[in-house]
Description:
Layout: H1 5-23, H2 27-37, E1 43-45, H3 46-53, H4 57-69, E2 73-78, E3 81-86, H5 93-104, H6 106-116, E4 122-126, H7 127-130, E5 137-143, H8 149-163, E6 166-172, E7 180-184
Parallel strand pairs: 5-6
Antiparallel strand pairs: 1-3, 2-3, 4-5, 4-7
Helix pairs in contact: 1-5, 3-4, 6-8
Amino acid sequence: MHFSKKRVLLLLNWFVVYMLDSLITSKTRLRLLVKFFINAANRGHMRGLAEEFNESTNAIRKELNNLSEAGYLEKEAQQNRVSYRANVKHPLFGSLQDIVHKYLGLDRIVETVLSRMGEVEQVVLMGDYAEGRDTGTIEVAIVGPALNTEYLERLTPKVEELIGRKVEFTINGTKLDKGLVLYEQ
């Protein structure tokens, strides 16, 4: 049996999503991992996370405690509330961040963009996903002097099918200093 490269990539992406969903049965825990491990700069506190995820504070508290006790998250007291962030010193931090990026399909986006876009200087994740909110629409800014915009228009639906999420690309002429840099030359 012979599979096309596109079919193999779709199967691999489905496999990563399936494995992560089956390994992490708590949707709240999965959302917290995305929040904190997509970008190490992301922070959150229990009530804010409960509002953001539209979850009860008890569900958020339980998962934050589990992730903190396992060493994946660090706690920091700020005035009268506790703030959480990813523990970048944890031995599995890089692996967890890679898994979250694969779960969201960010690795496929970068790989596909770099293949035929021209002189790409920077690929930057913007918007909700850069802040760790899995809202379904991934905003990506591509920076470069002479980019193939026609290819980008044809690429968008293919990437969306590949990763199972809506993707919005924008093109910039100058490097960005905000967002999460996924690639930089």
